[in-house]
Amino acid sequence: MKRTLLASTALAFLAVPAFAADLPSSEPAPAPQTYTAPPVFTWTGFYAGVNVGWNQNEMDVRNRGFTGTTGSYNPFSEKKNGFIGGFQVGYNQQFDMFVAGVEADLSYLGNRRARASTGVTNPAGVTGVQGTSRLDWLGTLRARAGVAMDNVFVYGTGGLAFGTPDQRLTLTNAGGTVTHSGTKDDTRFGWTIGAGAEIAVMDNLSFKAEYLYYDLGRNTVRANATAAGPAGTANSARFENNGHIVRAGMNYRF
């Protein structure tokens, strides 16, 4: 009898922990874990920066005719390569993967004066003609639009270009004496188009590479007779102004 009672008591004590384990816990359940996505890079905002690169300035000269005499010469041209450097400011707005914006820049061109010459057939004694052109600075105001892949932005660009070419037309006789001379250096407006890519290495710092073609249109220079030239005679020539730019830049976004 005693053995039966002891066995029942032992079984009761062993069952208590199992029963307690089945009771609901009074402690609150742990909060569910939430996933926070990393911040997505955006190109939206204002920026400013600097650029440096290579420029090729092209001069193309075509005869527009003589006044007070006759004469002719074939078209001639010349190209000059040089340094280009300047600064830019702009604004981007991002719409999902699409980015659109506007950028303005002003650059100094370190190329030398383009100079070329050819022979002239003229009864007034003119035997040679020389054209020279120099462009010291160039500005653009362009739209930029393209696709952003996180911190990489690939774009096309185009818009207004402006600068002040310094152009000269000189005619000489067989002895090398200047018979006609003229200059023009007014501000010209034209267009530019190109493409580029920009990569952000920090939230507010990016680097870009860019190509631009620019065309400042046509400029007519009139060379009037000097003291050594026949009075009342002149020659006019049309200068075409265009070139290429390849450059790299750095932007800081605000």
From TrEMBL:
Keywords: Cell outer membrane, Membrane, Signal. It is found in: Cell outer membrane. The keyword Transmembrane does not apply. It comes from the Bacteria. GO terms for cellular component: cell outer membrane. Residues 1-20 form the signal peptide. InterPro entries: Beta-barrel_OMP (IPR027385), OMP-like (IPR051692), OMP/PagP_B-barrel (IPR011250). Gene3D superfamilies: 2.40.160.20. Residues 12-254 form the Outer membrane protein beta-barrel domain. Pfam families: OMP_b-brl (PF13505). PANTHER family: BLL7405 PROTEIN (PTHR34001:SF3). Belongs to the Omp25/RopB family. This is BRP family porin.
